[in-house]
């Protein structure tokens, strides 16, 4: 017969032991990755990794730190991302002193990544276009000095200069990036600011927006460039700019609008669903509106804002967004030669390679925020697809 003391001890220890047992197999941490069935521990036959980085504002040191954090470059700033995709959402220039070095870095990485089957996608921010039209209010003296003076800076920015040519050839106002080459693969939308559902030139997406952005930029960068303001009077948009081009640079356009970052959640979620239907993207990702502590995911990560004030001019946190997409067979998929298919990754020949993939697959998209000393889980989405 147990003593009263024994009963008391058991009564105290039982809930404690039960709590420890539950805690052993569950977690309440919001950053934990959900436990997902292994589906027979089959290996993915396709994997694509995408990393997106927000506003850099002239800070070459922090830009390099972020790219190293994301395992895209080594200590010598050479591309080690293999077939990864890097998306940078604009505002490389202004506030800091080394924008020219960051643009040179992106130019080099674009070539190196392409040689490995990877890709660098570059988005124009409002500050790139500000510089193009002569609005130099946020240009630092050290930045001008780094370019070699005002005249040389204008020469580099012009359509005859290395940076102007780089902008015109490789930068766009928005991008729609597929995570795989099969027709039903999810796509991610990238802009600097927010996409507004009622923006009149939203579709066809992204070609309509990019055509306007490119034509406006071409006019702005055609010599002679507008004299920089200050100290000169502000010239406004270049002569000959159309109403549609002006609208693309206006407060409600994709370079400046902040609605998806600043409005209340219910409204943003309604806008997100409308945008996804119109542009065919699974997620809308942008920068422009900084949160100095974290990457912000809204509406079940349908909207993600990645500006965390990376530049020391702001003093925010260093961050990058990581998206990993995989396809894992649910059937016993085989090559025509009878051997199991080895994993492959996105490249110029990936579309042709996909012809060899037939059957049912588990499509998995996992999203993390990468910080200096931690990774934070943001979202996981899975579905069955038939190829």
UniProtKB/TrEMBL annotation:
<dbReference type="InterPro" id="IPR004843">
    <property type="entry name" value="Calcineurin-like_PHP"/>
</dbReference>
<dbReference type="GO" id="GO:0016787">
    <property type="term" value="F:hydrolase activity"/>
</dbReference>
<dbReference type="Pfam" id="PF00149">
    <property type="entry name" value="Metallophos"/>
</dbReference>
<dbReference type="InterPro" id="IPR029052">
    <property type="entry name" value="Metallo-depent_PP-like"/>
</dbReference>
<protein>
    <recommendedName>
        <fullName>Calcineurin-like phosphoesterase domain-containing protein</fullName>
    </recommendedName>
</protein>
<feature type="domain" description="Calcineurin-like phosphoesterase">
    <location>
        <begin position="49"/>
        <end position="196"/>
    </location>
</feature>
């Amino acid at each position: 017969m147990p003593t009263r003391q024994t009963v008391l001890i058991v009564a105290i220890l039982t809930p404690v032991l039960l709590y420890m047992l539950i805690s052993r197999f569950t977690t309440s941490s919001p950053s934990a990755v959900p436990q997902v069935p292994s589906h027979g521990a089959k290996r993915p036959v396709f994997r694509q990794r995408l990393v997106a980085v927000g506003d850099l504002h002239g800070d070459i040191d922090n830009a390099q730190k972020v790219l190293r954090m994301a395992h895209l470059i080594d200590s010598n700033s050479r591309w080690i991302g293999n077939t990864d995709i890097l998306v940078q959402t604009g505002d490389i220039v202004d506030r800091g002193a080394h924008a020219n070095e960051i643009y040179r870095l992106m130019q080099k990485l674009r070539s190196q990544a392409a040689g490995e089957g990877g890709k660098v996608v570059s988005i124009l921010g409002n500050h790139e276009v500000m510089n193009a039209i002569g609005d130099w209010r946020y240009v630092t003296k050290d930045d001008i000095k780094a370019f070699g003076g005002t005249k040389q800076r204008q020469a580099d920015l012009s359509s005859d200069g290395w940076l102007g040519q780089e902008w015109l050839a490789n930068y766009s106002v928005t991008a729609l990036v597929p995570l795989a080459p099969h027709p039903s693969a999810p796509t991610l939308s990238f802009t600097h600011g927010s996409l507004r559902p009622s923006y009149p030139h939203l579709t066809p997406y992204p070609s309509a927006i990019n055509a306007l952005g490119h034509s406006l930029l071409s006019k702005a960068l055609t010599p002679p460039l507008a004299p920089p303001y200050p100290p000169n009077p502000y010239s406004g948009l270049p002569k000959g700019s159309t109403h549609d081009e002006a609208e693309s640079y206006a407060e409600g356009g994709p370079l400046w609008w902040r609605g998806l970052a600043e409005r209340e959640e219910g409204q943003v979620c309604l806008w997100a669903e409308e945008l996804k239907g119109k542009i065919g993207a699974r997620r809308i990702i942008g920068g422009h509106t900084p949160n100095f502590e974290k990457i912000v995911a809204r509406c079940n990560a349908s909207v993600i804002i990645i500006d965390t004030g990376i530049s020391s001019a702001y003093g925010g946190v260093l961050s990058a967004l990581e998206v990993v997409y995989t396809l894992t067979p649910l059937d016993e998929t085989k090559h025509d030669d009878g051997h199991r298919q080895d994993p492959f990754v996105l490249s110029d020949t990936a579309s042709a390679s996909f012809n060899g993939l037939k059957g049912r697959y588990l499509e998995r998209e996992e999203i993390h925020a990468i910080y200096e000393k931690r990774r934070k889980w943001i979202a996981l989405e899975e579905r069955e697809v038939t190829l």
